[in-house]
């Protein structure tokens, strides 16, 4: 198999988008539709973590504030999981202040973005983390 064929045969990167807002999940599905990425949307951290056990992500985007487990816990789970620990994580928050930034840094998130954001900016960040 030539190098070109190998690249063509490579699997589509999987992006998890975790947010309790149905509107945000729909906006992201629409925004990523034209990208060569598989987007798995989850309404809470627990269901996302369960899915990750069977379908490992290439990038995870998680809201910080959600009912039950929050985005920090998602990031901690990923960092402590032997098979997922190198997975890039983007945390999103409506409020980005020193406390939020310090906590994101403490759980080793790759990026922290303020909501609302432009979907194209998020796509660019995901592409950068996939490189």
Structure commentary:
It contains six helices and five strands. By secondary structure, it is an alpha/beta fold. The protein has a five-stranded parallel sheet with strand order 2-1-3-4-5, with helices on both faces. Helix 2 links the parallel strand 1 (14-18) and strand 2 (38-42). Helix 3 packs parallel to helix 4 (71-80). The longest helix is centred in the C-terminal third of the chain and has 12 residues, at 119-130. The protein is globular, with a radius of gyration of 15 Å. Mean pLDDT is 93; it is low at 1-8.
Strand-helix topology:
Blueprint: H1 3-9, E1 14-18, H2 22-32, E2 38-42, H3 45-52, E3 59-63, H4 71-80, E4 89-93, H5 98-106, E5 111-114, H6 119-130
Parallel strand pairs: 1-2, 1-3, 3-4, 4-5
Rg for CA atoms: 15 Å
Structural class: alpha/beta
- Give, in spatial order, the strands making up the sheet with the most strands: 2-1-3-4-5
Give the end-to-end Cα distance, rounded to a whole number of Å.
Answer: 23 Å
Total helical elements: 6
Tags for this model:
6 helices; alpha/beta; disordered N terminus; 131 residues; five-stranded parallel beta sheet
Summarize this entry quickly.
The protein is an alpha/beta fold and 131 residues long.
